[in-house]
């Protein structure tokens, strides 16, 4: 009991006498500019060994990536798949008032390698490859719609009102498919009897 009181008093003395000296090292916070769109997130357990400390996550607004045009942005969303969301991830550290949210956000995490910088390098290289593939896609992805089933599933799992029937989304039908994807029906095929006797 006395040892705990001494320890508390020790830290209170440190706060009283040493913390005012740290004011000399204070720097003003400058948010990252448009030339640094990447948000890198890592986990630390205060120096203790833990498997999650090697994990690195990157989040970036798609509108701030070096994509050539709208076709490249659309191709990037398709190539990103479930890693693209229209809203910033809740654990990304991106505020609701930040700019660059018109094309959504891309999030990628890696914990395959034993060291954190190795995981960050892999995630960064993968992002660079996706950007290059989207810029070189041309018209290959122009007629493919963006798949948002992962967003609908997330809304249904949250059960905050978007999951009820008729809200949010509906069951797909033939009306939802592009007409050029549907098979062409011929009039003689529909008029001929299917079971002649």
Features:
197 residues; alpha+beta; 31% helix
Description:
The protein is α+β, with helices and mostly antiparallel strands and 197 residues long. It has five helices and four strands, in the order H-E-E-H-E-E-H-H-H. It has a four-stranded antiparallel β-sheet.
State the major sheet.
Answer: 4 strands, antiparallel
How many beta-strand elements? 4
Q: Helical stretch count? A: 5
Beta-strand proportion:
5-15%
Low-pLDDT regions: none
Radius of gyration: 26 Å
- The termini sit apart by 99 Å
Q: Give the H and E element order.
A: HEEHEEHHH
Write the layout of secondary structure elements.
Layout: H1 2-17, E1 39-42, E2 56-61, H2 70-80, E3 84-85, E4 105-110, H3 116-135, H4 149-158, H5 187-191
Antiparallel strand pairs: 1-2, 2-4, 3-4
Helix pairs in contact: 2-3
Quick structural summary:
With 197 residues, this protein is an alpha+beta fold.
């Amino acid at each position: 009991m006395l040892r705990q009181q001494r320890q508390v008093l020790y830290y209170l003395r440190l706060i009283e006498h040493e913390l005012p000296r740290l004011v000399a090292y204070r720097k003003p916070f400058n948010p990252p500019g448009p030339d640094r769109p990447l948000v890198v997130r890592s986990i630390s357990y205060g120096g203790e060994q833990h498997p999650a400390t090697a994990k690195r996550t990157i989040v970036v607004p798609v509108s701030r990536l070096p994509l050539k045009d709208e076709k490249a942005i659309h191709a990037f969303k398709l190539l990103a798949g479930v890693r693209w969301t229209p809203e910033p991830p809740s654990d990304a550290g991106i505020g609701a008032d930040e700019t660059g949210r018109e094309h959504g956000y891309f999030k990628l995490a890696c914990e395959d390698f034993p060291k954190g910088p190795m995981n960050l390098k892999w995630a960064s290289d993968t992002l660079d490859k996706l950007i290059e593939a989207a810029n070189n896609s041309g018209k290959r992805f122009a007629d493919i719609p963006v798949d948002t089933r992962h967003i609908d599933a997330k809304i249904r799992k949250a059960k905050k009102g978007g999951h009820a029937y008729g809200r949010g989304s509906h069951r797909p039908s033939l009306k939802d498919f592009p007409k050029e994807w549907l098979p062409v029906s011929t009039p003689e095929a529909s008029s001929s009897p299917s079971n002649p006797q």
